[in-house]
Specification:
The complex is a heterotrimer of chains A (about 475), B (about 100) and C (about 500). In chain A, about 65% of the residues are buried. In chain A, helix 9 crosses helix 11. The model of chain A has no long low-confidence stretch (mean pLDDT about 95). Chain A has 15 helices and eleven strands. In chain A, about 40% of the residues lie in helices and about 15% in strands. Chain B has a domain of about 35 residues: Histone, subunit A (Orthogonal Bundle). Chain B has three helices and three strands; from the N terminus they run H-H-E-H-E-E. Chain B has a two-stranded antiparallel ribbon. The two termini of chain B are about 40 Å apart. The model of chain B has no long low-confidence stretch (mean pLDDT about 90). Chain C is built from 15 helices and 17 strands. In chain C, strand 14 and strand 15 form a beta hairpin. Chain C is α+β, with helices and mostly antiparallel strands and about 500 residues long. In chain C, helix 7 packs antiparallel against helix 8. Classes of the chains: A alpha/beta (about 475), B alpha+beta (about 100), C alpha+beta (about 500). Strand 3 of chain B pairs antiparallel with strand 10 of chain C, so a sheet runs across the interface. Bound molecules: magnesium ion and zinc ion.
Amino acid sequence: MELLSLSAVQLGRAIREGRTTAVEAMEAVLGRIEEKEEWLNCYITLDKEGARRRAQETQKRIEAGELRGPLAGVPMAVKDNLCTRGMRTTCGSRMLETFVPAYSADAVMGLERAGAVLVGKTNMDEFAMGSTTENSFYGPTRNPWNTDHVPGGSSGGSAAAVAARECFFALGSDTGGSVRQPAAHCGVVGMKPTYGTVSRYGLVAYASSMDQIGPLCGNVEDCGAVLEAIAGIVPESDSTYVHRKDSFQGALKRDVRGLRIGLPKDYFGEGLDEEVRNALLKAARLLEAEGAEVDEFDLGLSDYALPAYYTIAAAEASSNLERFDGIKYGYRAGNAEDDLHRMYKRTRSEGFGKEVKRRIMLGGFVLSSGYYDAYYQKALKAKALIKGAFDKAFFGYDCILGPVAPCTAPKLGESLPDPLKMYLGDVYTVAANLAGLPAISLPCGMSRAGLPIGMQLVADCFQERKLLQIAYTYEQCRG
Amino acid sequence: MQNGISDEMIEYVGILTKLELSEEEKEQAREDMGRLLSYIDKLGELDTEGVEPMCHVLPIQNVLREDVITNEDQSRELLGNAPCRRDNMFVAPRAF
Amino acid sequence: MAEKYETVIGLEVHVELATKTKIFCGCSTAFGDSPNSHTCPICLGMPGTLPMLNGRVLEYAVAAGIAMNCDISRFCRFDRKNYFYPDNPQNYQISQLYLPICRDGWVEIEFNEDPAQGVEKLSPSMKNPSLRTKKVGIHEIHMEEDAGKLVHDDGGDYTLIDYNRAGVPLIEIVSEPDMRTAQEVIAYLEKLRRILQYLGVSDCKLQEGSMRVDVNLSLRKEGTKELGIRTEMKNLGSFHAISRAIESERQRQQALLESGREVVQETRRWDEGKETSYAMRSKENARDYRYFPDPDLAPICISHGFWEKIRAAQPEFCWEKRKRYKAEYDIPEYDIDIITDSRQMAELFEATVALGSQPKKVSNWLMGETLRLLRERNLDPSDIRFTPENLAKLIALTESRTINSTVAKEVFEIMFTENADPEMYVKEQRLAMVADEETLRRTAEKVIRENPKSVQDYIRGKDRALGYLVGQTMIACGGKADPVGASRLLKELLQQEVNEA
Ligand SMILES: [Mg+2]
Ligand SMILES: [Zn+2]
């Protein structure tokens, strides 16, 4: 049995049925890591010995009948902005190079309870700020399909690890597309649940009003299983969590008859790569052939999502990242022990990378006295209007189909010189974060250059089941 | 409206956010911020008259905990990450 | 041509709420434990942690708002106040700016009009003809978290930080600039203290920092309406410091204005030792807090039902009790003022009276021994441990002349200290008075036999000799004799001696 070709759910079944073990699965993954990691750099922290030990313990518990879930014994990777008790959590930053949390993220604990086995912590853009995984203090991650290209970001390490089979599935976080976009660039399935579906406790905050943890998986079925494991837990402490009793795995059936799928004209216009457009339209026709009603419509306001997003995200980030000051944990600059404020400044200037500093300054500015109304407040009003536009759209459609990114994965180094251009790459994903909507990114073809193309489906709040059903149907009929 | 970010503004934001920039970085920051802000200025086109600013996207309210002690003394572990500590306390340089 | 200036004062009062746990986590709020023993990842602002509001904080804030005649916001929210300082682990304080929980209230204060009276004599109990009342507006009350404690080491190079107080719930009560004198300020603070203590929302101890006062003060030319530029005075640890600081700042601003200079809007720190203040200015601390709604905390909606529940639970406040006591109980007004000063004392009084004790007797024990012991042991009425049942028993024991007043004081002290049952204690320690006539008579006869000189003195008409003999009889009975009975008996026996002589 070629273990690495199995999906997470298939592997879990094989382990439960005694055809393989959690230990064998872990060895297969560690072997693949040995082979690929040097080129890809998916992980910031690997704990091979710990992973072997955890796999053995899990296998015993499976054999004892304590663990029966679909993910028991399956090796997983976790983005390095999710806290893991006893394992360092860096957020891709020098600032947290030595930080070892005394607590685990609720989502991580949910998966551990389900029997998934942690391999290590994946690479990311520093504090999840970036779209390429090049803004990492620990070096860039490369795209497994072509190592000259980036894997996307900020959850690029997680997406690349899943694509390269350096794990069977991974967790990422999505504030403006950071799960969906790298999933698209690496040819895997990535989902951002409705805001509030997964407890954020233990996720190091970037922009609190939009951050959401999501799975990166080989297929839609795995995605449903992971979502179920991370959504159902009672949070340690999270005031924005919404408890639901949905079974996400139960939504996996091939049926889109009568469902209305809308293609926003605004998303298919200028700026969208021709190959991407064609792949999306082909996918839409497949769904139509399965019985869905597909048509184009005007979503409206889509030009305003990105400026509103960057304003709000920068503002929240500037405040969320104030706690990194060299006193309680993490990096502290030397040679500044004579004055508190000098220590603050040195620590933060040396501990944070360029992109993080850029967003902190922007955020500080838009909140500062005299500019709050014109920028921050204005962005919150734009957000209200955008939410309204989606409410209207979902009155007419069950789901919106569109691109994830304007083009396939760019080459390494191509995006860095121009931050604004990089931001523009998030144009199709940020609206779902502003409006709190669930969205899924799944592969819908390859470019001539051999890079994956992603499709995005967005549904109304709490409609994950519908989203999974449509994605699953597409995956099945795509063949 | 805000294409011209002044040196003073960069200096001021640096004080607010506790970032110390080299001359070169300041120049870069001025340029970046100017461009980003003129892009954000696009929001000015929107008519938001009478629109209530939306902070929380979901209508969640009154999420409360009970007034019950749940924590024991875990200070030793929690202080374990501190770059500098003394007598079970965190240590910071003095402010002048 | 000296202008007359009017002093305009508004206060920001921070009050620590008497919850068991912190505002956003399950850590204890207990005072005085070892550094950082009451901390967790949440109140240390560790990466990835999130706050969750303590429901009791909401109840207390609404209770305070209702007692201070405020409008309670149907919808409110928390905001972040961003500033870098090591006392706050996140470098932002979770507070309320845009939508505070209570607004537009007032309290009525009673104060002495004569400034020469001095602060200490401002108790409303002083029946002073110039006692006046006035309403002070409450601009708003908001909820927020307290900060940690900074300890400066001896060398002075470092600051040590204890986050036990970080995240302790506070309400900040912001008054309108309605006060004019230190007397009014103290009266206002006394009023707040009584309200909050009666509500059980806070113990309001200025010395322990559970009540902290910042004074906003400005001057304006008498007769003008427009407010002058104000300063904010911090670090005021006592009523004395507050009134000294007000006077000092008034003089400082007046000197500036009279010499044609301007007051600078700034925060000043009072130096209690030097009796002076200095400006806290720093380029590094711009007063630009970049407030914005905290995305981590769900907004709060206060329903009519919730409001009604809190309103119905409001206690009878001291000024209401005073009125009722005057009508119901025959005790002096002075007693009433002191007993109603604290809710614990008043409730103890009422409960003991309800058990059948005579009000004046109860009042005597509270005003006398109780206050004496509280003062002696540096305690508060809230620290009283004995029950009304036991106080009633003690009073009954004295009423029935089972014990005399000296013994009663001894029993009270035991009762005060360990809430001992006076009946049991008297029995166990055999403290009941020597009541049987026969024993007392034999003792008295013995005393008369042994003190012929005093008997002679008495016979010669020296009444003082009787006192001495009574004393000797008491001693002979081990202090347990009824002095009245002993005196009566001695007189009887001595009369026989007189007759015989
Ligand atoms: Mg305050
Ligand atoms: Zn805590």
